[in-house]
Amino acid sequence: MGAFRVGQIVPSSNTTMETEIPAVLRAREAVEPERFTFHSSRMRMQKVTKEELAAMDRDSDRCAIELADARVDVLGYACLVAIMSMGKGYHRVSEERLQRRTAEVGGPAPVVTSAGALVDGLKILGAKRVSILAPYMKPLTKLVIDYIENEGIEVVDSISLEIPDNLEVGRQDPRAPVEITKRLNTKDVDAVVASACVQMPSLPAVQLIEDRVGIPVVSSSISTTFMMLKKLGLKTHAPGFGSLLSGRY
User: Fold this and answer.
1) Please, are residues 239 and 27 in contact by the beta-carbon 8 Å criterion?
2) Confidence band (pLDDT; 50, 70, 90) for 218?
3) Got the DSSP string for the chain?
4) Rounded Cα–Cα distance for residues 73 and 110 (Å)
5) Catalytic residue positions?
6) Between the CA of residue 102 and those of 75, 111, 191, 229, what are the distances in Å?
7) What confidence score (pLDDT) does residue 199 get?
8) Is the pLDDT of residue 221 over 90?
9) pLDDT digits 0-9 by tens, 189-201
10) Nearest residue to 196 via CA among 75, 16, 64
């Protein structure tokens, strides 16, 4: 059996999804038989503003077509806030459209958006109330909260780091969420989102936070990987990355 080809549409300034998703799947390779290769196409974005996000989203069709030419087995749209800023429920529109683009050029592939994956991952965990950590300016975090709440999940508490420069977001210490989430309300919630952003690194922090708070902890990249495995029909197991990837769901 050959390796599964994992395609990602990433913002041009994103440096995290091409490291975190392979890291999760490499850890999975140590305990499961399947193997993966990774392929990306980039869409232009420097500052995380509504205008740049909208322009970038228009670029996603080209990226999907490029990745379809590589005959990827699954395709991930690696920008949560770009989808959420386009209107409530937009991940369904985007996933359907991008999947159609791949089929039109002869390389049909299922599409996962990080926005849809985060929402779906929380629903699969049965989370009705959550607290979230995000790097965004407060108006964009509010937009993310509204989007999640429109899906029937209440956001009880949130922290915004207010970093507008996307490259700067990617330079954050991936272990920083361990300390930062100590300021979040984790008593009255069903799950914690350690990074509601595909650019804010958090991978080594997720299991540590989950061990401390005793409830499921997810991130955008973990949720995206989970949904990719679901779309591929594979066991959703990668050790050390929290409940969602425990293989129980």
Assistant:
1) yes
2) very high
3) --PEEEEEEEETT--SHHHHHHHHHHHHHTTSS--EEEEEEEE--SB--HHHHHHHHHTHHHHHHHHHHTT-SEEEE--HHHHHTT-TTHHHHHHHHHHHHHHHTT----EEEHHHHHHHHHHHTT-SEEEEEE-S-HHHHHHHHHHHHHTT-EEEEEEE----BHHHHHTS-TTHHHHHGGGS--SS-SEEEEESSSSS--HHHHHHHHHHHSS-EEEHHHHHHHHHHHHHT---B-TTS-GGGBS--
4) 7
5) 79, 197
6) 9, 9, 34, 19
7) 92
8) yes
9) 999 999 999 999 9
10) 16
Does the global pTM surpass 0.70? yes
Give residue-wise pLDDT tens across range 124-140: 999 999 999 999 999 99
